[in-house]
Design goal:
The strands form two sheets. The protein has a two-stranded antiparallel sheet with strand order 1-2. It has a two-stranded antiparallel sheet with strand order 3-4. A hairpin with a 4-residue loop joins strand 1 and strand 2 (about 20-25). It contains 21 helices and four strands. Helix 8 packs antiparallel against helix 9 and helix 9 runs antiparallel to helix 18 (about 430-440). The chain is mainly alpha-helical.
């Protein structure tokens, strides 16, 4: 990985055209080669498998409650039947919604201080949230715990950044595809746990699934602390985040002064550019004196604001973010829509599944996704590329979503077939977009890019269930509880249309 000092970025404002030109310079030719090189981590696939385990247990701490939510709201929290849809939407969206506010910052911080400390802390938060949610007496306490966990964690974005650190070429495409399979595995395992373990304690049916999920999180947490290497080593300690709490000593050329550490921000891009141009003479004289110059100090690291502007100046990244947002909104809505529609009583035009049947449906959905990834994904990507694979997967989800309401006519048993095709679409759409984002990201900004993508993804994934719950409650009153599936189909077609302007070369991995 390149050192932070290798990256020299400034913004030059053209007063006539009001366009921002981004100048990126590297210290020397060796650092140019290092900028595009993967992190050298022994046992590449061993590290990747450890990262998958983080995704599985972190997602499980959320998904283990999903099949139980309608029953939990009715029996534990005494929520009226007409408000079930809204309350399910609030809970499933809360963690993702509040993660929006912190994921980009956590991703940027991982570029500066490394990935592992934030991954370990995120798992600790997930463990605590899993145990507390089933212990509180009020729905609003559970909602607050879920929201707090969202603010403090960004394990999905960090895992994607870590995968980008250690994988290149076709390995990266496959690694991100199997990341999607990890989500499917989490859904399958957690749904099976919910369906089977909830009957172990009739008085507290929600506690056994939570305890099992918490035990798995604990095991993976210990394994990660011991065996996961740092995929993005830096020269900075995460403890520096708390440096503002104490005075620090700065050494000048001739004396020493005591002052409180404060970040220096230059808000004038023109002045920053002039400083970069004038710094060549200062650098030469500084090297002759054997002293560190202000040029070395000022350009050693680029601030978060400048990096964000540089990130959003890339049209490919912008378009991929839009696609990922649409896909996240659709996926988050689809899982909740299936839960609400499948468990809705038959007299209200639903399928009338009980908790066990719903849990098994989610398990089958997850297992189909995993099997599809393991058996077919490599061949599909080699034939159609990442962009072609995404387009076909997105089209498949759109068609399957439009066909879900037909189960009321054909019978609930045909859901197994539809869930199989829907799982294949899930595994060839959004996971592929994450790989394309990683391929398009600038060197030295992978954590920020994936963190920002995770922020927007979480926001839309949160708004999805929230919107879905409200639309469902409205549609039940009108006796058309399936209309949201048609709306979701339009959402996926919009994501497909957005991808038309992308080129295959911009989305494929560099060799």
């Amino acid at each position: 990985m390149p050192s932070h000092s290798a990256l020299r970025e400034t913004e030059i404002v053209d007063e006539e055209s009001d366009k921002i030109k981004h100048v990126v310079t590297l210290a020397n030719a060796n650092e140019i080669e290092a900028a595009d090189a993967p992190t050298k981590v022994d046992g590449e696939w061993r590290v990747i498998l450890l990262l998958y385990s983080i995704v599985i247990v972190d997602a499980m701490s959320v998904t283990v409650f999903v099949p139980l939510l309608p029953d939990m709201l009715r029996r534990k929290f005494d929520v009226p039947e007409e408000d079930i849809g809204d309350y399910v939407g609030y809970f499933t969206s809360s963690r993702m919604l509040f993660s929006f506010f912190s994921s980009f910052f956590i991703g940027h911080a991982s570029d500066e201080y490394g990935r592992k400390p934030f991954l370990v802390f995120g798992l600790c938060v997930s463990l605590a949230a899993t145990l507390l949610i089933v212990s509180v007496p009020s729905y609003w306490y559970a909602l607050a715990i879920s929201a707090t966990a969202g603010v403090l964690t960004s394990n999905i974005g960090l895992t994607r950044a870590a995968l980008s650190d250690v994988a290149r070429g076709e390995t990266r495409s496959v690694a991100f595809a199997y990341l999607g399979a990890s989500f499917a595995t989490s859904r399958a395992v957690s749904s099976g746990i919910s369906a089977l373990a909830s009957s172990a304690d009739s008085n507290r049916p929600y506690l056994p699934p939570a305890l099992i999920a918490a035990s798995l999180v604990t095991v993976i947490l210990v394994v990660i602390v011991i065996f996961l290497p740092e995929t993005h080593p830096t020269d900075r300690s995460v403890l520096e985040l708390f440096a503002w709490l104490r005075p620090r000593r700065y050494k000048g050329l001739h004396d020493e002064v005591e002052m409180t550490a404060r970040p220096v921000v230059n808000d004038d891009p023109g002045a920053a550019a002039a400083s970069l141009e004038d710094g060549s003479e200062d650098r030469a004289s500084g090297e002759q004196r054997g002293c560190a110059t202000s040029q070395d100090t000022d350009t050693k690291r680029i601030g978060l604001y400048q990096r964000m502007r540089l990130l959003f100046s890339d049209p490919v990244i912008r378009k991929l973010f839009v696609i990922q947002c649409l896909g996240s909104f659709g996926n988050g809505s689809m899982l909740v829509a299936m839960l609400l529609y499948f468990t809705l009583p038959v007299e209200n035009h639903g399928l009338g599944l009980d908790v066990e049947s719903m849990g098994l449906s989610y398990t089958a959905f997850g297992l189909c996704g995993v099997l599809f990834q393991l058996v077919f994904f490599k061949r599909i990507v080699r034939r159609w590329g990442l962009l072609g694979t995404f387009r076909r997967g997105c089209f498949l989800i759109a068609i399957c979503s439009a066909m879900v309401p037909s189960l009321a006519v054909w019978g609930a048993e045909l859901r197994w077939v539809l869930l199989g095709f829907l799982a294949a679409g899930f595994q060839t759409a959004l996971p592929v977009v994450s790989a394309m984002v990683s391929n398009a990201a600038r060197s030295g900004m992978i954590g920020l890019t994936q963190g920002t993508a995770a922020s927007f993804s979480m926001l839309l994934r949160a708004l999805g269930p929230l919107t879905c719950g409200m639309v469902f409650s409205w549609s039940v009153q009108l006796s058309v509880p399936y209309v949201e599936f048609w709306l979701l189909s339009l959402c996926y077609f919009a994501a497909l249309a957005t991808s038309i302007g992308l080129s295959h070369d911009a989305c494929e991995p560099s060799q």
